[in-house]
Write a structure and sequence with these properties.
By secondary structure, this protein is mainly alpha-helical. The protein has helices at residues 5-31, 38-57, 59-69, 76-94, 97-120, 127-144, 150-155, 164-186, 202-216, 252-270, 287-301, 305-318, 328-335, 352-367, 376-388, 404-407, 414-433, 437-442, 447-456, 466-474, 481-495, and strands spanning 223-227, 233-237, 240-245.
Length: 500
Amino acid sequence: MGHTFPALLQRMQELKDLSGAIGLATWDQETYLPKKASEARAQQLSTLQALYHERLVDPRLGEALAWAAGQEGLTSDERAMVRVLAHERDRAVKVPAALVRALAEAQGKALVAWREAREARRFAHFQPALARVLALRREQADAYGHAGERYDALLEGYEPGMRVARLTPVLGAVRDALVEMVRVLAARPRPPDVLEGKSFDVEAQWRFTLELLEAMGFDTEAGRQDRSIHPFTGGTHPLDVRLTTRLFPEYPLSSVFSTIHECGHGLYEQGFAPEHYRTPLASAPSMGLHESQSRLWENVVGRSRAFWSHWLPRFREYFPAQLEGVEMDGFVRTLNQVHPSLVRVEADEVTYNLHIVLRYELELLLVADALPLDALPGEWNARMERYLGVRPKDDLEGVLQDIHWAWGEFGYFPTYTLGNLYAASLYRAAVAQVPGLEEGMALGNLLPLRDWLRAKVHAQGYRLPAEDLVRQVTGHGLTDADFLGYLRRKYGALYEVSLP
């Protein structure tokens, strides 16, 4: 029977629909799922994921994609759809089903071992399970295939097209610049926290975050915000995007920045072009580019004086007693304190990427089997001291703090720093291309930035690889120059010091 593109498109749409059902079940698992339903949900997700995989690796889909790749009459978008789905399918069929099952089993055991190790504050409890996950990930990388750098095959799953040879020099330059910057800033007096010791009603925080969502242009008729322990963005479709935030009475900025961060992701998900819905193009080209949207909104915008010129008076209306006497200068310095710390998720904008580089460097060694696992905690601690000037007192503060390695997510960490680098470049382009952008922001008008990002980034979907899209928008590809320049200007002014 002959192939047609409409028939192939139907297969693409079915895969997207299954992915949406998995997304909804996963979101519900983290928000409203009853306690007794966890095993049932795990079984449902396993079935849905098996169905997705079965349809993805179906030989008939492979034949249809091969046929479409040879057709000259397809539009550029149709060719992009074929390329993206073929890339996903090619990776899936290279991994034997037995290895997929072994990885799932090893990840489940590693999660249990990781939690036990955290309770004991000893890496040794996690080491055997991690060794098993690592061995399987190396086997998986070799199944995918690579040109000698095994890590490239795992990185490809999160940042398609990125390679260690491209990434290591950039991250090395970021590391060296930040180590010097942190050294200078750590020697300066630390600004006081003007919010410390105060309590902020969580329901008032919730209402404030909903105002922020509306101002940022998130469509609440095509999405919603809920509460979870760990903020995340999920959903089923660009017209059904789910965000979560978290609220603490003693730390109101957690809800504020969780909402802004997840809204950045949510705006991306809502911004795909309608003609791409239910196709492979309704997705970001990489985790790093998706992360650039949340980082741009949370840090570059959300921690800026321009943003709070409008929002601090409104925040004060919600919390008049707590913010009495709090002026703009002190508030902005509180938002942007630089303080070397042990925990990645609590790190400030300047030190954060040193946490990522440390993990990346260790991952390269682990995946290459060039670092004995029993030496990992010591190597972690030594690099923390070298880069940040702090040393964990035990493994819980050190090598056990992230869940990523228990999941076997080797290759994921670098996308956080790529997101920061892309965010700085994109924001610089936005300021240059949108007249009065920051002046309007100071008046509370955030929609010009949302609209610019929607046209330049979101609506493009997966038409281009991530770096090519950034190059199209900014005139250049991946660089550390925009990010480091942004940090030097911002924190040099805040701390009244010349930064190297």
